[in-house]
Amino acid sequence: MKRIVIVTALLLGIAPLLLADEGMWLPSLIRGRIADMHAKGFKLTAEDIYSVNQASLKDAVLLFGGGCTGEVVSPEGLVLTNHHCGYYQIARHSSVEHDYLKDGFWAMARGEELPCPGLTVSFLERMEDVTAAVLQGVAGDAPAAWRDSVVLARSGDLVKAACARGAGLTASVEPLYYGNQYFLFVYKVYRDIRLVGAPPSSIGKFGGDTDNWMWPRHTGDFSIFRIYADASNEPADYSVTNVPYVPRRFFKISTAGVREGDFTFIYGNPGSTQEYITGEAVRWIGEVADPERIALRDLRLGIIKSYMARSQELRIRYSSRAATVANAWKKWQGESLGIRRMKTVAAKKAYEVRFAKWASASSYEGVVERIDSLLRLQEPYDFARFYYQEAVSQIELASFAASQVKILSEDPERAEASARSFFGQYSEEMDREMFLALMDRFNECVPEEFKPAYFKEQMDRYGSVAAWADAFFAESVFADPEQAVALKKRDLKTLREDPAFRFASAFSSWYRKEVLPEYQRLSGEIKLLQRDYMRGQMMMGGDRDFYPDANLTLRVAYGHVEGYSPSDGVYYTPVSTLKGVIEKDNPDIFDYDIPQSLRDLYAKSLQEDPAGVGMGTVPVCFLATNHTTGGNSGSPVINADGDLIGINFDRVWEGTMSDIVYDPDYCRNISLDIRYLLFVVRELGHADHLLNEITIVN
């Protein structure tokens, strides 16, 4: 208990030490940062940001789906998030006849809003420090397995009690600071969410993979949804009798605009960061893991894009898949370069020398060395792990075979529908190319002692990946649509000998029995030592602010509008405009082919403007220094008065190492200027009825 008190005191007593706008702060503890926020221009109170006693800004922020953020902007449950966050739902409703990805979608009446089965939004009801309850009587040197079982049991009791307090509630207990602190998060989850509006992808994804993570950016990355509830404003499954949700709080929208130096803050759900790991861990990420994963996704993206270019139907089919693959691919490139540019490994190791001096003759002595020795043991297992995830698991026919055998053994009547669904999206030709590229890479890069016996047997049998691929696709009944839909007539024992199923089963067995257990065992030992190292860092203090690593729970990040210099002699100003959209426009390049209606609108504005400027000054995106990561997509960007000025959607490529180390010179988040959203809704969507719901302030 003494250790808990010390750590909690450190957390609550943290003073603003750094001038940089680094940090992802718990809203319930924001009072510890409010003085610094006020000094930088913020005008509201800590209670305005987070309160359990009255409506606060937290009540207008939501977790959108399982990994994005959104915000409520009207008293009738209207929600804004990114286009890429709503992309799956937009694509799901699209077809060749009604291509909402290509043409956009605008519901002109409530009855036209499209239900999105399975999509949920979650509002944080409250967060509570439950460290004392979770760790009561648990000594710091308690056996790891016993400690974990106690934490799990007590967390389960807390979650059960929290969920019993109302309908539609879910909860979780999350470790912070590597388990030095625990917080209970309680959410109310709404299940009837409907698509209201989305611009064409030529606006919502303008620049595509080419501009992803880059500046200047000209992407109108937004989509619009609405939350529905029952007559009591409580969560309910979809029903035509449901009514628009009435929020406790919604954001007003400011059209005053942004200038360099303006205060900004972001309220959202950042996904995952690793700010306090050792230099050895950073070396592995920057020098080995990122380059290998980039190479694997290079192969996959090249193949997917070659098929997307063949037809509109294939472009629609594979667009979401390509975007998913490309996002992390480009992020890892910037992360690896940023780690090298900042000399992060050397800086971490220099810090560790100072830590070792401080820790001498204490219980923290040698903790970094013990972590690093375990990391070196773990490296080959981690390498095999991401080759399984990024290469082996990407062979679609094998995954289909495994899922079908499982369905046939549990519920055979579902098998035919499952097969028809699979072949409605499947290309054997593309899957074969994936097999050839990824298995060749696996053979070349995975050390011989880590290759599964099955893989070696197949290579010995066929002599090459190409010959293996020929047999794999020719001999599998799962590759034949007619046979695949009639599999319930087949003997399961025979199906388990099928080449596609054997591939999935053998690799899965290797991964589950030979790779994952040792990786997880070492991860558990590293985690325990990292908890001690984290506590030691906080006790040592120095020139650091200690905010908890991101874990997809609600956080506040604040900073200001600012450009940056990516290289000598170059300075990027922090605001992009519609003029830049027109300059990039190119009908021959898919990523830059804007709607003809926007070209016509812009040309007309030039004719009507004596100065020849027209709509060129319409703001599109802006940069700020807010510390963000994945999960912050769709987060509201808020000004000093608490009004919405933008929607966060990206970071600059040069600053993506901010998940590991924040550089105030390079780390910038990219946001859609809310005025561009209003412009697109009004001028291209002609959906003024939506704007009538919104409260706009200057």
List keywords for this structure.
698 residues, alpha+beta, 7-stranded antiparallel sheet, 22 strands, disordered N terminus
Give a written overview of the molecule.
The radius of gyration is 26 Å and the shape is globular. It has 25 helices and 22 strands. Strands 1, 2, 3, 4, 5, 6, 7, 8, 9, 10 and 11 form an eleven-stranded antiparallel beta sheet that branches. A seven-stranded antiparallel beta sheet has the order 14-13-19-20-21-18-17. A two-stranded parallel ribbon has the order 12-22. It is α+β, with helices and mostly antiparallel strands. A hairpin with a 5-residue loop joins β19 and β20. Helix content is 45%, strand content 15%. The model is unreliable at 1-19 (pLDDT under 50).
Task: Sum this structure up briefly.
By secondary structure, the protein is of the alpha+beta class. The protein is built from 25 helices and 22 strands.
Distance between the termini: 51 Å
Got a strand count?
Answer: 22
Low-confidence parts lasting 5 or more residues at pLDDT below 50? 1-19
Rough shape? globular
Number of helical elements: 25
The percent range for helix content is 40-55%
Structural class: alpha+beta
Please state roughly what percent of the residues sit in beta strands, choosing from under 5%, 5-15%, 15-25%, 25-35%, 35-45% or over 45%: 15-25%
In round numbers, the mean pLDDT is: 94
- Largest sheet data: 11 strands, antiparallel
Rg to the nearest angstrom? 26 Å
